[in-house]
Amino acid sequence: MSALALLGTAAQAEDYHAHSAPAVSALSRAAVQAEAVAAAHAPDQNISSSSVVLAPPAAPRERASVRAEAVRTAHAPDQNLHASSRVDSQIVSTLPNPVDAQVQQAAGDMRANSNNLR
């Protein structure tokens, strides 16, 4: 290797510490150590999260309402559109949801049947 090449690489070298940020923490070293010791001595710390039984939700919803919401969302005409799919695009949903149309038609049919019974 020539002396000129060595001189060029020496000029390119940078100090590693110039790019590292100083450590900033709200906790002292002793507090972090205490948290680490407490976590290490915690019961059942090595059980995977998939093995833990979760508590039921605080406000469970009825199965029928969840299903109705899922069906409505799945049948939405703009469900696969995202504003980020095109530059400066906006999605304005002007198409009626087929599920809403079915519900309105069923409600209209019920009114028509009740009027015929009178």
Automatic annotation (TrEMBL):
Q: Where is the composition biased (Low complexity)?
A: 41-56
Q: Which domain of life is it from?
A: Bacteria
Region of interest called Disordered, as start-end residue ranges on this chain: 41-87
- List compositional bias (Basic and acidic residues) regions by residue number: 60-72
This chain's protein is named DUF4148 domain-containing protein
Report the source organism. Xenophilus arseniciresistens
